[in-house]
UniProtKB/TrEMBL annotation, chain A:
This is Uncharacterized protein. It comes from the Eukaryota.
Automatic annotation (TrEMBL), chain B:
It comes from the Eukaryota. This is Uncharacterized protein. It comes from Vaccinium darrowii.
């Protein structure tokens, strides 16, 4: 719309400008089209316009599969419910746990008047970084002593993986990462956003509920030279299936001969076997051969610092000079993401790792958590055996870490949620940490029921006038129920669900 | 024929590279994957502090990074924060927050920006998530903008906080400049700003500093904000406010949010990044909030869910500690009052230092006008010094600031203001 008055910005005061603006709209020029005057511009500049949002087309995003489980669990009003979804440790009483040594560290920090909350450097707390590298690579690691390792503080495991992925996408020529099948759901989301394309390699073997080692070797063998390979350092999530040390050695040799770049996700160090060093073996094997790798570390589970978001990304390089340059590039990834990492959690970790006594305390509390989980595995296994649940359930005690891949399918999972108020991810993964001696029987009952299919769904067709079920059919139904009840040794495992259909 | 040769050439090159990869990985003396990684340029702002820390001179002055210092040049932890931490320590578990962060903290934070009695809050039209301070909030929005308005660009003021460029670049959103700072007057280039708003394609996205513009300290007047808002309405532009200094600029949180309130009155559906880094001194805790005003509750739920989808593959869920400090303070009327008092205290000290610096320079008989020092607002002052003059300040006087001449007023104390004025006078007197 051409303005009637030729409006030059430098003419007149602010008020004049605004008035002339208003005037133009109050008295539109004759040449203005009908469409222009239809524009919802009121004469009063401060009145509310009914404007359209530029994001009106945004649809509701799907619930996160894992975190959505807890949401659903919280909504459930049933007094007997079990949350085996997200991998957060619970005590025997089903309560979240803050480690004693963590509380101690927190108090020290709070009472230290000299502490300030200034920005950390982009790469995070220096002490934390050095000590974290020692935790995963070993205090006497030659790579550390030779200054070949750059470690940056990140937001737990997720943040470390994302930053590592973005670094690779920008600085590494092979932009494909191979992830195991299955793997933690967020892996497949975060690597593409980091700029990498994702392929999978065979990992879990459903028939044996163990490792498909042949498939793994074949798939890695056929990966292009230089491809990145995501490896779960220990306690594979979601399956709990880890390679043996011998198998790890074979994987290492294969990867080095094919020039594949290892990217370790270490979220459970110490949590799997109870020993920090034992759980770090696979990573240390790869570092010992002098080659390069990336490692994402998380303190969410093993130090119970979940919500504090503490983790570290380490890149083991061939030389100290390279490590320095790599670190400078990591900063370029971090700065536009969140500038610098949160200080609180890292300070707690550094406080603990620095102090010999606190470190030892930590290892004791860590082992206790790992031991409780191992004991839950044993109890669940025995409970299923006692019930005579068909199938081989030895994978429950063979698998390691927080999770068990039960082998249940999504229908069985849905059944368990519906009938027994047990919440877990639809892939059949249960978090052993959510179990206690008291709740194991309930879970065992549920698994037993799901597996043996002692569910009879009877559909009754209802007409709009009311119950259209003929008397004959009704008696047939009653007879069937009585027959089934007498058949089963344990009637409590027999559930009858009547579904109504309109 | 030529094409085929070119292809096989490149293929050969790829194979060569691949073979050298393999060779590299096998022998321990072979070169690294990262041989070609160049050392990255230092961050212009954070690099200043690094240089400052490395300087052994006792009289050195750091007026680089924008972190508040008291009159002794010491960092400050607010009393309200210390008290909140005392209450929190030992009393909370450290479970994961939801992906969108602490609901309590978000609720209080949104009230600060939009007003306690905002209808938008009552009608649940604001999609808000906890973010990693201001940076994280801007980045989440930039990623959201890329995903849901993929053809859009972002108009960014000249100059702006340097990390804004990095953020929208990494989100793959193209950037366009708009006029803002007027070097000659060391004030706002309002007419050029309005022209840029008018000439931008309708429905453009604009980044606005809600108050205490960083790095210039130059803010539009209330009247100017109204004009900007009006013109935004005419053009159907989207206003994204970065509010990193609410309370810190004038000492009054309501006054500092005026620009946002004007836009809301005019019915704009804005986006807003908020940070507690400066105004609550929570720098390293990384606490902030991203909010997007929607047409209705349903849309707000959808937008929030999508923001969470962007946070999950970045860091899963935000850190709990800082959020707990914020909600503890804002939820308790006494602590909140204490906070507001402490914020005003910080703002007042800065305003005092502005006056002192200007008076010192005028007393030294500087030929230049230093009026802008007291006209500008917030933590920063755009001195107008050239990079060469800045370099002299650093090399001769051990005064550290960013090369664009930005002075962080918070780094000035009654103890060093005289030294600073003298140094500035020395390097500028022959201008």
């Amino acid at each position: 719309m051409r303005s009637q008055t030729d409006h030059t910005p430098s003419v007149g005061s602010v008020t004049d400008r605004r008035l002339s603006c208003l005037l133009r709209h109050l008295h539109p020029s004759p040449s203005s089209s009908a469409m222009e005057s239809d524009r919802t511009i009121s004469a009063l500049p401060t009145s509310s316009f009914g404007s359209d949002s530029v994001f009106a087309h945004v649809v509701q995003g799907p619930e996160d599969a894992i975190l959505g489980v807890t949401v659903a669990f919280n909504k459930d009003p049933s007094p007997i419910k079990l949350n085996l979804g997200v991998g957060a440790y619970r005590t025997e009483e089903g309560k979240p746990l803050v480690l004693n040594v963590v509380r101690k560290a927190e108090q020290l920090l709070v009472n230290d008047k000299s502490r300030v909350k200034e920005y950390l450097p982009i790469v995070g707390l220096a002490d934390f970084n050095k000590l974290s590298a020692k935790v995963i690579f070993g205090a006497d690691s030659p790579a550390i002593q030779e200054n070949r390792v750059t470690t940056v503080q990140c937001l737990s495991g997720t943040g470390s993986l994302r930053v590592g992925g973005e670094f690779l996408a920008r600085n590494y020529p092979q932009r494909t990462i191979y992830i195991p099948q299955p793997t933690w759901g967020n892996h497949a989301k975060l690597f593409p956003l980091a700029g990498l394309s994702v392929k999978t390699y065979r990992y879990y073997d459903p028939p044996t509920r163990g490792l498909n080692f042949q498939g793994l070797l074949e798939d890695l063998s056929s990966a292009p030279l230089g491809a990145i390979v995501l490896l779960h350092a220990c306690a594979h999530n979601p399956t709990g299936v880890d390679p043996t040390i011998e198998q790890w050695e074979q994987i290492r040799q294969l990867m080095r001969s094919k020039g594949l770049l290892p990217f370790f996700d270490s979220a459970y160090q110490g949590f799997a076997s109870g020993s920090l060093d034992a759980d770090a073996q696979p990573v240390r094997m790869f570092v010992a051969d002098g080659g390069e790798c990336l490692v994402a570390q998380s303190y969410a589970k093993n130090m119970g610092l979940y919500g504090e978001r503490v983790g570290a990304l380490s890149i083991v390089c061939k030389s100290a000079d390279v490590a320095i340059r790599v670190e400078s590039q990591l900063k370029l990834v971090i700065r536009p993401m969140y500038s610098n990492p949160p200080i609180h959690g890292a300070s707690i970790v550094a406080t603990i790792l620095k102090d010999r006594n606190m470190f030892d305390e930590w290892t004791v509390e860590l082992k206790a958590m790992a031991d409780r989980i191992i004991s839950m595995r044993q109890q669940l296994f025995e409970a299923l055996r006692a019930r005579g649940t068909p199938g081989d359930w030895s994978h429950i005690i063979k698998q390691i870490g927080m999770f068990t891949f039960t082998g249940l399918n999504s229908e069985q999972v849905a059944f368990m949620t519906r009938e027994y108020h047990i919440y877990m991810t639809s892939d059949g993964r249960i978090s052993m940490a959510g179990l206690s001696s008291k709740t194991v029987p309930h879970l065992a009952d549920a698994i037993h029921a799901a597996v043996t299919g002692h569910l009879i769904a009877i559909k009754i067709a209802m007409s709009s006038n009311g119950i259209g079920l003929k008397l004959k059919q009704y008696y047939k139904l009653l007879l069937l129920l009585l027959l089934m009840e007498s058949t089963f040794q344990d009637p409590s495992t027999c559930r009858v669900t009547i579904l109504r259909l309109q | 024929m030529a094409a085929r040769t070119a292809l096989s050439d490149s293929r050969r090159q790829v194979v060569k590279t691949m073979i050298s990869f393999g060779a590299r990985s096998m022998s321990s003396s072979s070169s690294s994957w990262w041989r070609s990684v160049e050392p990255a340029a230092k961050d212009p702002i954070l690099g200043v502090t690094e240089a400052f820390l490395a300087d052994p001179t006792p009289t050195k002055v750091n007026v680089g990074v924008g972190a508040y210092r008291d009159d002794n040049g010491k960092p400050v932890v607010l009393e309200c924060v210390r008290e909140a931490e005392r209450r929190i320590a030992g009393n909370k578990n450290m479970e994961y927050l939801p992906m969108g962060g602490s609901l309590k903290m978000i609720e209080e934070t949104v009230k600060l920006a939009y007003g306690e009695d905002s209808d938008l809050i009552k009608d649940k039209r604001i999609a808000a998530v906890q973010a990693l301070s201001g940076t994280g909030a801007c980045r989440l929005f930039a990623d959201f903008q890329k995903r849901f308005s993929p053809d859009s660009q972002i108009f960014i003021p000249v100059p702006t906080w340097s990390n804004h460029h990095n953020i929208w670049r990494d989100a793959h959103v193209p950037q366009r400049p708009y006029h803002y700072y007027h070097p000659q007057s060391r004030g706002l280039d309002f007419s050029a700003l309005m022209d840029d708003i008018k000439n931008a394609p309708s429905g453009s996205f604009f980044l606005l500093h809600a108050c205490a513009h960083n790095p210039t300290g130059v803010d539009p007047t209330e009247e100017q904000w109204r004009e900007i808002s009006y013109q935004f309405k005419v053009k159907g532009h989207f206003a994204f406010f970065d509010m990193a200094y609410q309370g810190f600029a004038s000492g009054d949180t309501v006054r500092d949010a005026k620009s946002i309130r004007i836009f809301l009155e005019d019915g704009h559906l804005i986006g807003c990044a908020q940070s507690y880094a400066k105004n609550m001194g929570l720098y390293g805790q990384r606490v902030g909030c991203l909010s997007v005003v929607c047409e209705d509750e349903k849309q707000a739920i959808a937008v929030k869910s999508q923001l969470q989808q962007l946070a999950r593959p970045m860091y899963s869920n935000p850190p709990v500690h800082g959020a707990l400090i914020v909600s503890t303070i804002l939820d308790d009327p006494d602590l909140k009052k204490l906070w507001l008092k402490e914020v005003k205290g910080m703002a007042d000290r800065i305003i005092g230092m502005r006056t002192a610096l200007r008076e010192n320079l005028e007393k030294l008989g500087s030929p230049l006008s230093w009026e802008h020092i007291t006209k500008q607002i917030g933590m920063f002052c755009f001195s107008g010094m050239t990079p060469e003059q800045v370099d002299r300040l650093t090399s001769e006087f051990h005064i550290y600031l960013t090369r664009n001449g930005r002075i962080s007023m918070a780094g000035i104390t009654t103890g060093n203001v005289g030294y600073l004025a003298n140094a500035i006078h020395e390097v500028t007197k022959s201008t």
